[in-house]
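Worked example

This section walks through a single chain of length 586. The input is the sequence exactly as stored; nothing has been trimmed or padded.
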Amino acid sequence: MTAREGTITPASRTLLALAAVAISFAAADTYVVVLALPEMMTSVGLETEELQRAAPIVSGFLLGYVAILPLIGRISDLRGRVPVLLGSLVVFAVGSLVTAAAYNLETVVAGRLVQGIGGGGLIPPTLALVADLWPPHRRGLPLGVVGAVQELGSVLGPLYGAVVLAIGDWRAIFWLNCAVGLVLVAAILPLRASRPTSDPRPSSDPRFDWPGSVLAVLALAGLSLVMTAPDRLVQDVEIGRAYLPVTGDSRWTTPLALATFALVVLLVARLATARRPLVDWRAWPALARETDLWGALLLTVALGAVIVTFASAEPESGAVSPDAPWLVPVALVALAGFVLRQRRAERPLVPRGALRARPAWGSIVVSFFIGAALIAALVDIPFFARLTVYRDSQLDAALVLVRFLVALPVGAVVGGWLLRRVPAHLLTAVAMVLSAIAFWHMSTWDATSLGRETETWSLVLAGLGFGLAIAPVNAVLLVHTADAVHGVSSALLIVSRMVGMLLGISALTTIGLRAFYAASDKIPPVAELCGAGATLCQSYRDAVRDAGITQLHTVFVGAAVCALIAAVLALVLLRPAHDVPEQAAA
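Given that input, the structure is written out below as tokens.
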């Protein structure tokens, strides 16, 4: 009996639990630099005023997290869920190691980029794994749990960073991430066979390549020692010789670096000659032929340009990056190339007909508008708090959002449970209406609102609404797509939400800034409010603050509109279709 027929083994639950823990850690890494960023900037030679130069530390992770998702999702369809989970965890651990050992801005950004690739790569195979192991009518709760732990990362990230920073420096955060990633790999390895018996993909050989593993660990250890160059070792009379460059003054020409390169060569030789190597590279040529790497490259370039365009902007002052004039054309050309490639490729990245059913492509559209509304809460609620009640404390302003962020994973679990009792399209529509009501109420906040405990209800209601929508949207997509495309379709769902967040904050910021400038034009001159020859007075400061509140009210109204659009689209597009793929039917 297969999992699709109703048998869910303890190993299946354990596998999902471990994947959920991994997703939580990866999601936390999106926010973990909130408190660590100033210290990271100082350690790589940046002044705290040079925040714009440090933006790639944040956007680099986001770029890796999103841009390569469709390719990873497709590989999970072709290669299997668990191998991709394991590979993503290893990449996440390596990225954490590179970040922890980084010695300049370029190596920090490189490490964060690799971390993002590994962290983002965990989500599509995990969602597809739920579809593989649970029958459609029982997927709601596990999908809710996966969504909950992903959102919980946004709560735990800053707290996790604060705890580690209290007992160590910023590097300790990433060393710990590396250790957790490797521990999760060791825990998942014995569960590689936990998949439906109907899955035609061959299981991994249970025998482990210990020589290859030892060489890989030694190579990574050498890399970390070269990059970190600990003072205790460098200044040691004997050991320090390993850090003396053979030629020039680069750390990459030292005896230690050369020994590391030799280990890498031995590792490659082992992979090429072993009967059962650590990484089964022999399957790569066939995988490359089936994956459409050119299409994946075009889509990655398009998504990368979009992410850099909008993620590098300052939400409080501008909508797009200063490099937008050349980034946007690059994105449009790459996207056009991807669409053309999809039409002509023998095996396109997204198989033809994969999203044929209305609810399948409809869930991606709904996810876009949910993301556009969600970003207003994540960015502008703390902004409102800083502008009004918590002017002198960025931390207290950020903590206002905790009430929203705690409600979100709770809503995700409840939404998964309700999915067995309420149709997905109705549940999603009601959820987004709740969030729209909360945003409408936020648009009535005044300068003292966040100082009153009674305002907690709007934050909780908004979080619950977004949480309730997670499981039904995911479930609709998985039910109306075939088993063989669950990975790539799940990746597109996540990409749609992230792009919705980026474009949403851009559009809402543009509209809000127009409202701010209109309100600012009505502020009387300083001399009229404060008296002739006077400097800025409280009346003038209050007038500027009120103009800022007008800006945020406009943003909240726009977010409410996006949430209502998502609700209407959910009612129309997520209704059950008759053309459910046979493989995905209950």
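What to look for: The longest helix spans residues 486-521.
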